Amino acid sequence: MQLRDALDDYKRHAGDGTRFPGERRTVSGRFSGGDGRLVHVGDDGELRDFGYPLTGQTGLVRSRIGLAVGDEVTWLDEADTTQRYVGDTALIETTHETARGTVARHDVTLGDAHLTRASVDLSDDADPDDASLVVYARFAPDGRDDRVGQLRFDDAVEVYHADEHDFLASATGFSDLRGQLPTTFPELLDDDPTELPRDRDGDRYEEERLSGEVIADVPFEDGVATVATLLTDRNETDREAARDRLDALFSDLDGVDALTDAAADALPSVPESAPARDSVVADLRVLSLLSAPSGLRIAGPDFDPYYEHSGGYGYTWFRDDAEISGFLLGAADAVGVDLDDWHARSARMYVDTQRPDGSWPHRVWPRDGALAPGWANARIEDGPDLDYQADQTGSVVAYLSQARAAGVSVDGLDRTLVAALAGLDRTLEIDGRPVVCQNAWEDSAGRFTHTAATFLEAYSELGRHGEGLAVDALDDPDAVPGAESLPDDLAAHARDQAREVYAALDDLWVPERGCYALRETPDGGIDDRIDSSTLALAAAHRSFDALGGGATGSGEGGAVDEERLDRLVSHVETVVDGLYHETDAITGLIRYEGDGWRRTGQDSEKVWTVSTAWGANACAELAALLAARDDPRAAEMVERARDLLSHVSPGGSLCEPTTYLPEQFFDDGTPDSATPLGWPHAIRLATVALLDDELPQFADPAAADD
Q1: Which of 304, 342, 384, 453 reaches 20 to 30 Å from 29, CA-CA?
Q2: Closest Cα partner for 333 from 683, 689, 679, 684?
Q3: Could you tell me which of 30, 18, 26, 24 has the C-alpha nearest to residue 5?
């Protein structure tokens, strides 16, 4: 998104009650991609690239497509439009009904290329020989909208700044091709937004070559016109190779069936027997779309790159990413999907991005793991560690321990876990709870229940799966702070630490509310508000329970005692009931009591999909813990899990018709913020798998009726 676009959107939406002006929203429309490049096809047909964090290339920042019959152009974003995914793929079918005829489009992103195939069925009064597809495209190579040039060819135009060279090509050539300058200063200062593209201006001859904006007339052949865009780095792909690739795409992908087959190859295959199959397909599609070739994922498409109303979303947070990895690892076999390559890529990048002190940075660029802009980099900067998110390290350790047990083999994995164990120890206070740091929502500091839950799970998973780990796995133990204090038996040490955290959680119990507090504040007070992030306690206690009972954690039976189990049940019920929010349009959980973020004029807290999905998963995790003890409360927890899951499942009030889960909703049902958000999609997938695989005795009666 360029500043010109942000200002244009600001003019269009300033004062809107549910739209934040200056953003490039993706709450409607669908994405295509899966191998780096990420292209949004709006519900009006507009194409935009969102893949910069994944590939380092900016590509398309604005576009319009029209149907020309003679001298009359009908822009498809003004027509009645319907849109869907084709089958299980990320091939998008968009149908535009215009007064001059029906245009059926198929859009697919394959690697660094995007193809748009348009077929037209003209009305009886239109002459097919007078029809063409009009394509307006603005590129921003190297993220620039200035000092950009064009090279023209018979069937392609190349737009370039320095390293990034972007191509627009047509299978049937161009009947006309022109350029235009970006929005001018007077237009930017005008109160009204500027409609683009403009008519041709013969007095501005230089605009034909000195901008990233092109307008092309593409002839139909037998009622079909196909255009492609290709993003390249001149250091990797020369001009001849780029044009050869475009020619090959046009020849090899001639027809909807060929496009469908190519799109199907980009996503994991889901068996027909998978539970809640449509939901599983949608989740894996989204998580694939958000993934870089490295395996790291953006949290969501970056709708606010100027940080006007948020801190940005097009980055990898190790909390979200490792949680997603863990959910995928646990669910893959249960839903019958082979994700071994995904597991290994994630583990490899966590190994490569670990800092020397055993922690992970706030956020990184997913394409290569380089440090990205952030505000919680206390471990890198001088000064206290207050602005450090310790839960991120806990989440990564839990995943890597599970991956090690599952047979994921990555060079340096043991070294990484040993260094991370030392890092966890250094951020655990003598009372058994993590230090003062930032929370999962990144909006306050304290000693959080959620952070303690991630430490409990990390230590428990290390204790379960850390046999054979030793300090000598470190290349240089003296270079890792805290490594000198580690004992010989690291797995036993992790189990001991897990028990310390388990016991220390009692400090955060609030008997008056029947739940665990949000945090201990930096000044030592107790903040007893209800917070959905504390639902992480359910999965953490299941991990701890797997250590077994007894003084050493090796005896018979679970490690969670009856008093703690009762408190867990009370806590989950209190949080779910306390955060439950229902309107005429939506039902789900708010994030926490008193959440004021992105509310605009709404009086109450907004509903979040990640909180609602987390509630479903926590109820299912707790149900499994109860069922292992033949506790009759398991059935009620499964019922709660299914109720919450229904709201984020296809057909639920928090799941858009696109199958996407936006981050938030206003009370009137308007979706908001990052869409789709990867974290709730992974939680949804894991919860479906958990209910089907580990709790089949509590089968859903509605599913049985179906």
Answers
A1: 342
A2: 689
A3: 24
Is-cis flag, bond preceding 268, omega within 30? no
> Which of these, 458, 438, 460, 459, lies nearest to 447 by C-alpha position?
438
Residue-wise pLDDT for 529-577, tens only, equals: 999 999 999 999 999 999 986 433 333 457 999 999 999 999 999 999 9
Whether the Cβ atoms of residue 564 and residue 542 lie closer than 8 Å to each other: no
How far, in Å, CA of 639 to CA of 626, rounded? Answer: 13
Edge to edge, the sheet with strand 37-41 lists 30-35, 37-41, 47-49
Q: What is the DSSP letter of 199?
A: P
Q: In what order do the strands lie in the sheet with 526-527?
A: 437-438, 445-448, 519-520, 526-527
Closest CA to 460 of 505, 408, 517: 505
Q: Cα separations (Å) of 630 from 582, 621, 634, 639? A: 33, 14, 8, 16
Instruction: Return the bridge partners of 95, or none.
Output: 82, 104
Which residues does residue 152 pair with via DSSP β-bridges, in sequence order?
157
Pairing status of strand 149-152 against strand 363-364: unpaired
Question: Under a CB-based contact definition with an 8 Å cutoff, are residues 471 and 555 in contact?
Answer: no
Which tokens is 152 given? 């023209």
d(CA 484, CA 487) in angstroms, rounded, equals 8
Q: Shortest CA distance to 648 belongs to which of 640, 658, 656?
A: 656
Residue-level pLDDT at 704: 56
pLDDT in tens, 68-97: 999 899 999 999 999 999 999 999 999 999
Judge whether 359 and 394 are in contact, CB under 8 Å.
Answer: no
Strand, helix or coil for residue 627:
helix
Residue 697 vs residues 273, 559, 634, 692: alpha-carbon distances, Å: 18, 24, 10, 9
Distance CA 414, CA 403 (A): 11
- Give the burial string for 346-355 (b: 16+ CB within 10 Å, else e): bbbbbbebbe
Nearest to 445 by CA among 377, 534, 371, 522: 522
C-alpha distances (whole Å) from 382 to each of 187, 349, 379, 446 are 45, 26, 8, 20
Q: How far apart are CA 608 and CA 594, in angstroms?
A: 14
Q: For residue 124, what pLDDT band results from cuts at 50, 70 and 90?
A: confident
Could you tell me the pTM of the whole model? 0.96
DSSP E strands, 449-530:
509-510, 515-516, 519-520, 526-527
